[in-house]
Design a protein that fits this description.
The chain is 35% helix and 17% strand. It is of the alpha/beta class. The strands form three sheets. A nine-stranded mixed beta sheet has the order 3-4-5-6-9-10-11-12-13, with helices on one face. A two-stranded parallel ribbon has the order 1-2. Helix 7 links the parallel strand 10 and strand 11.
Amino acid sequence: MSLSLDIAHASRPVPAPAPVNLTGLTREGLRQTLIDHDICPPEKARMRASQVWRWIHHYGVTDFGLMSDVAKDTRAKLAEAFTLARPEIVERQVSRDGTRKWLIRTAPGIEIETVFIPDVARSGALCVSSQVGCTLNCTFCHTGTQKLVRNLTAAEIVAQVQVARDDLGEWPSPKEDRRLSNIVFMGMGEPLYNLDNVADAIDIIADGEGIAISRRRITVSTSGVVPMIPELGERTGTMLAISLHATRDELRDVLVPLNRKYPLDQLMAAIRAYPGLGNARRVTFEYVMLKGVNDSLDEAKALVKLIGGIPAKINLIPFNPWPGTDYQCSDWKTIEAFAAVLNRAGYASPIRTPRGRDILAACGQLKSESEKVRASALRKAAQAPAVSPEASSPEM
């Protein structure tokens, strides 16, 4: 019996590996891949890679056949070996305020949320995810209640930008009138726990002959993975944001449990050492306003003291409620009084207008309703009485 099973198992066809999606390759990675797959000889690889790169990231094509300045036989080889396919859009929602949210499926069981917020910064910001789920368990954050599944690949990160530009009609890459002008790594996950893929994705997004969003318009937010902060600056040259939310270790230990590993004194030292830090490259501190928790005037004064000497601005974020949370948003007058303390100390402290709350697209809400709906459906299915196939078949 065991022998026959072994024979049957051995004869089972092995599925072919999925084709490489060129979207996630850096320029050098693309050049080397074209050589490795015999698409072109080494001496022509840089030129050919530049052609393909521009079609992918400037024009946004998903069909090798449209690459008109590439020889027809080369296009056929590319199509045989690689793919440019976009991920599946499972759900697209548009808020009353114009915020757009996409639930994107990049592989079986791998779903992420991406949010476009219009009328921020120069034009609009895209909030991208770096992981499926999160490990940090920040108690005020809905995303933190979703267990980590895995890191996203560079291709899956870049695909979020491509999906948004598809929907906004922004191919080829515009220069002055683009609606998507800024990228913020503030979606699902902790970017510094996936720095290799995040750094590659930033190299791709910032390339001037492609998507061409300047590194000064890309912000990476971390909850405080202290050892990786200097490396982030050295490898990416992006703007830094810190998910702070408290000025005392005992409170931050509760709100941001990562603080137990990297307390505030270590975090502040790493921020002060961030490469390129200065008035032209200020750190953004994100501070969610929680009623009766971290919103007193004493906390505001402590915040000024904590960040003293750091070129910074502070984004005050009214807490965005989500199902099951015990936290409440601070009163508006309390938030304004908190901001006034920071302003008097010389810090810009805009109060972030909540966007996309009605579709759970606001800050801290990115655990999709679809996940809750699927879980609810599974529970109901498990509790339902079994129905025979005959009983469930429609009458002919």
